[in-house]
Amino acid sequence: MKVFLLQILAFLLFGGGIHCQASTRRLTFVVKEASYTRLCSTKNILTVNGQFPGPTIYAKKGETIIVDVYNRGKENITIHWHGVNMPRYPWTDGPEYITQCPIQPGSKFSQKIILSSEEGTLWWHAHSDWTRATVHGAIIVYPKNGTKYPFPKPNAEIPIILGTFKLRVDHGKTYLLRIINAALHEALFFSIAKHKMTVVGTDGSYTKPLTRDYITIYPGQTFDVLLEANQLPDHYYMAAKTYSIAPVAQNFYDNTTTTAIVQYRGYYTPSSPLSLPHFPAYNDTNASVQVMAGLRSLADAEHPSNVPLSPSTKLIYTVSVNSFLCPNNSCAGPNGTRFSASINNISFQSPTIDILQAYYYNISGVYGDKFPSVPPLVFDFTADYLPLEYQTPEIGTEVRVLEYNSTVEIVFQGTNLVAGTHHPMHLHGYSFYLVGWGFGNFDKNRDPLRYNLVDPPLQSTISVPTNGWVAIRFEASNPGEGGFIYKAL
Ligand SMILES: *[C@@H]1O[C@H](CO)[C@@H](O)[C@H](O)[C@H]1NC(C)=O
Ligand SMILES: *[C@@H]1O[C@H](CO)[C@@H](O)[C@H](O)[C@H]1NC(C)=O
Ligand SMILES: *[C@@H]1O[C@H](CO)[C@@H](O)[C@H](O)[C@H]1NC(C)=O
Ligand SMILES: *[C@@H]1O[C@H](CO)[C@@H](O)[C@H](O)[C@H]1NC(C)=O
Ligand SMILES: *[C@@H]1O[C@H](CO)[C@@H](O)[C@H](O)[C@H]1NC(C)=O
Ligand SMILES: *[C@@H]1O[C@H](CO)[C@@H](O)[C@H](O)[C@H]1NC(C)=O
Ligand SMILES: *[C@@H]1O[C@H](CO)[C@@H](O)[C@H](O)[C@H]1NC(C)=O
Ligand SMILES: *[C@@H]1O[C@H](CO)[C@@H](O)[C@H](O)[C@H]1NC(C)=O
Ligand SMILES: *[C@@H]1O[C@H](CO)[C@@H](O)[C@H](O)[C@H]1NC(C)=O
Ligand SMILES: *[C@@H]1O[C@H](CO)[C@@H](O)[C@H](O)[C@H]1NC(C)=O
């Protein structure tokens, strides 16, 4: 019997394009240090081909690309194709110690990228330690020859990796902004003064048009958004600001507003001063989920929805921030503890060889297969006050093995342990349907009645709302893939 692995990981994090034609192309990524100047200071950063952000990979739906990755840096590295499903070929998807060992300094590894159903904007990034902070870039997947966008063709397309953008526009034209949140852990509100945006896709799948004043984009997500340059020619701020429930005073996150200017071409005197777009309050959790709540897939003949209607496997996973005691309370977390994160109270310990290899060659002792299907302890997960003794998780390298072609529902339940916060979740090698979400504790009798099984959005990264839950469904038809990545704070 064929099986695939659902590896469950919980980590805690603190604080020039290449163009396409034929069906298998080869690209070269040389990972190396380069000096980079920003805000008047120059430092060495790790780059791909000396570029920051790294090269954009342009492709057509269904294409296969081979990327020869040369590690000329000083650290181990892997490159992950974020949101690419890699059907039946998990071997070069990148996650360190999950599907491969890292590429060591001085060595080379050829990574195949197999595009299948994805269409829209995806991205790639390094997947070891902190290297992804500078080693990342966009993957833009165009419709196949003979097919087109399910929305009017924009006049121009602009990839925007948040933090590194500028934009000049002509009045009357429509622009497709391909927005990627490459931040390590920050959810961002993004808005353009006096302009509305129409979301037409996320994570490499199209959506029904959703017109909004702002969007919330979680770490790892991509949004394809149409911007109509339909206002008086002027300069307008576009801006991004962190959503966070952490108290401002604690300095947990960067609370500055990143701006860039949308500049209409032409002769006029720009307004002064420019006004900032209106944003929800930095800690407005309800506002932060409204875009997610409004997303619907196209679910038409050309883009059918294949959401499993009666899943064969149902799992409930709590996602928590945790704390470990340190000798003499010497760590930097609350009360001298060390932050951690867990799923169903298991905090992931990285193995020494990759899990996929251990599975394939039947090497025992690398991981266990006892990952719990439901929370080991049921309590009022989102209560204001929770017993301190619940905070310390178990440590383990546990895997959930799923039967090939089983249909799976996972409810991710956020908890209020240590700090109830939002939890971005990314599933390697899969897109999944977001069928439901809510605040508070998931109710297995009442909540499924409100699921969207008609046109749920297809995502590869979602965020569990602060003190809330999400329900996702997918078919386990991609053996070897399925590492969940969860990063808290
Ligand atoms: C780099 O990878 C190799 C092979 O997996 C491993 O033995 C080594 O410890 C890694 N180095 C670091 C600094 O993690
Ligand atoms: C797709 O269209 C482009 C431009 O029209 C052409 O160069 C290319 O050969 C076509 N590819 C295929 C596979 O038909
Ligand atoms: C940003 O955080 C600092 C402290 O870390 C605080 O002094 C400042 O008021 C905050 N700014 C805003 C706009 O919230
Ligand atoms: C949001 O922040 C404001 C001011 O910083 C504070 O008064 C309010 O209580 C916060 N709201 C929540 C839900 O934490
Ligand atoms: C959340 O926001 C939506 C949309 O703005 C609004 O309709 C709803 O009343 C809000 N809910 C709460 C609890 O504030
Ligand atoms: C903890 O503190 C005690 C008393 O000050 C000291 O004797 C001990 O060495 C400390 N332990 C560590 C691990 O720092
Ligand atoms: C820190 O310790 C105090 C007193 O024991 C306790 O009330 C508080 O909840 C602790 N905070 C955390 C985050 O553990
Ligand atoms: C895998 O290893 C286990 C224990 O080491 C053994 O019982 C089992 O038969 C092996 N399976 C295969 C397919 O080799
Ligand atoms: C997690 O497991 C540890 C160790 O068994 C236990 O002390 C703690 O209470 C558990 N917490 C929860 C929320 O299950
Ligand atoms: C798994 O699903 C695929 C696609 O739906 C189908 O072609 C295949 O026959 C199925 N295999 C098994 C073993 O059920």
UniProtKB/TrEMBL annotation:
Its cofactor is Cu cation. CDD domains: CuRO_1_LCC_plant, CuRO_2_LCC_plant. InterPro entries: Cu-oxidase-like_N (IPR011707), Cu-oxidase_2nd (IPR001117), Cu-oxidase_C (IPR011706), Cu-oxidase_fam (IPR045087), Cupredoxin (IPR008972), CuRO_1_LCC (IPR034288), CuRO_2_LCC (IPR034285). One of its GO terms (cellular component) is apoplast. It catalyses: 4 hydroquinone + O2 = 4 benzosemiquinone + 2 H2O. Keywords: Apoplast, Copper, Glycoprotein, Lignin degradation, Metal-binding, Oxidoreductase, Repeat, Secreted, Signal. The keyword Signal applies. The keyword Cell division does not apply. GO terms for biological process: lignin catabolic process. Its EC number is 1.10.3.2. It is found in: Secreted, Extracellular space, Apoplast. Residues 31-145, 163-266, 376-481 form the Plastocyanin-like domain. Residues 1-20 form the signal peptide. Belongs to the multicopper oxidase family. This is laccase. It comes from Vitis vinifera.
